Amino acid sequence: MLKKKLLWSIVLVITMVLAACSGSGKSNGEEASGSIGEEVDYKIIGIEPGAGIMQATDTALKEYENLADWEVVESSSAAMASELQKAYEDEEPIIVTGWTPHWKFAKFDLKYLEDPKGVYGEAEVIQTLVRQGLKDEQPNAYTVLDQFFWTPDDMAQVMVEIQDGADPVEAASAWVEDNSDKVAEWTSGAEKVDGEKIKLAYVAWDSEIASTNVVAKVLESIGYEVELLQLDAGPMFAAIAEGDADGMVAAWLPGTHAAYMEEYGDKVEDLGPNLEGAKIGLVVPAYMDVDSIEDLK
């Protein structure tokens, strides 16, 4: 009889311990399964203020009721990428403003959040704009800029090299050397010049650093002396419109830079797309269990 009581006592103790552990585990699970908003402190990591994607994200905060208590954190393209990399390496949740082409999609397994309200628009193109009068004054540079066209994969090759530590000029030079057939298409009909100067404006996004340096190397290959002028998006458009720069290959349309194109479009010459299939939106690591902006709570 005594043995039976002792046995039942042991069973009871074990049962209570297991129940306690189970309850504790449930509590931790509830904490771990908190809302996405709680996990990221209701913050979306952005880039430079004034960028089109930041304007679109401000609109998203207004259009999506579930984002009423959220904020977009102003930073820079480099700072955003750094925050993303740190979170990704630790498998921590993070939401960033993102766009393609960008090296981060080659480095990390990422996904765009679905945008049911269409705030971020459809696929975009990157267009080449030049100052009025460039065709008559510098026809050979105009020819190269007009014929410049490449793919997101082309751009990604240069961006990844830069991200891996290559100097942008060196990465661009290597790409130009390795893609002589494509470069020949851009320079077809353009004559050699002797040290004529040309100024290209760009915004310090990884994609535009890549494309602008590549175009600069191509122009240098036919004798131009190229100056690169780094500006924010608005001043970049203004520089072309006012003749302070000769051209750029960095206009994201129809969405990202729509406001600037509306303001300056009649003062510049639009040479059309130099890359198709660009996209902007909110981006998260693929390991996060969220698929839509509407899922952000």
Automatic annotation (TrEMBL):
**Record carries keyword Protein transport:** no
GO MF terms here are: amine transmembrane transporter activity; carnitine transmembrane transporter activity
Spell out the PROSITE patterns in the cross-references.
PROKAR_LIPOPROTEIN
The signal peptide annotation in the UniProt record is 1-19
Can the keyword Calcium be found in this entry's annotation? no
Which UniProt keywords are listed? Cell membrane, Membrane, Signal, Transport
Its domain of life?
Answer: Bacteria
InterPro entries referenced in this protein's UniProt entry, alphabetically: ABC_Gly_betaine_transp_sub-bd
Location in or out of the cell: Cell membrane
Which BP terms from GO are recorded? choline transport; glycine betaine transport
Q: Which residues form the ABC-type glycine betaine transport system substrate-binding domain?
A: 36-177, 197-297
GO cellular component terms?
Answer: ATP-binding cassette (ABC) transporter complex
**Listed Pfam families:** OpuAC (PF04069)
Q: Which residues cross the membrane?
A: none
What is the protein's name according to its record? Answer: Glycine/betaine ABC transporter
